[in-house]
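Team,

Forwarding the record for the chain on the shared tracking sheet. I've put the sequence and predicted structure together so nobody has to dig through attachments.
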Amino acid sequence: MATAILMNTKPHAARHDLESIFYVLIYVATTYKGPENIRKQKDYAVWSSIPVREWFEMQHSFRKMARLRMSHLCDFKGAILHKMDGYFRPLFPFLTNLLNTFFPEHPSTDNDYDNRMTSSTMIDLFNDEYNKLKELESVQMTEKGKRRHLG
């Protein structure tokens, strides 16, 4: 759920749904280790905490949940990216770009905790990332083919 909605500072708008998609991406990348490979309890024990898990603890009020999440977003690299499995490392620049597009000045009371994303911008960001990943996949397949040929 979008921060401005949790904080009850803005009426619901489409940009809030886009923000929710961002949080789903973060959740998937911190909960899974790759395709069809969810973290086991022992995986969580390796980390002192996986902050994203705290976002869903229902003993918090919505405002407290929003504040907790904002604190993690302020330390995006340490609190979120470094808690993701290496499988998702190629997505780090994309996720960081999404964060900076949603919150150019980071969520704060100055902007009523609202984001700045538009659907066209989000579509452009996703299309750009898709094209980068397809290019990376192509390079990796070419390199794999060269190794097979040399072997």
